[in-house]
What does this fold into?
Amino acid sequence: QVQLQESGPGLVKPSQTLTLTCTVSGGSITSLHSFWIWIRQPPGKGLEWMGAIAYSGNTYYFPSLKSRTSISRDTSKNQFTLQLSSVTPEDTAVYYCARGGRADAYDYRGQGTQVTVSS
It folds into this structure.
């Protein structure tokens, strides 16, 4: 069974870049037709898709955050990473990494990590 674990800072200052890493076990991020996804949930709101990196290394970003989002991977460590630049308090959310068979749907998800943007 695939397991995903998010890691990164719980507190980030405004204007900084948030970097989160997802460590995957029980499956490879290069497995054919797999997509590795970042999602977030702001307080009191629904899930918001941020982007994904495919098994091929191709990346996909959702329009609302595309200008500030970058997703990369380290296949030697079976990890993929989210970078979100120029954060504001509106970026405060629980951030999840997930796996799916396409960029906008998942079947496995990590437990999530709380990120607060505050000075």
The chain has a mean pLDDT of 96. The two ends are 39 Å apart (CA to CA). The CA atoms of residues 50 and 63 lie 8 Å apart.
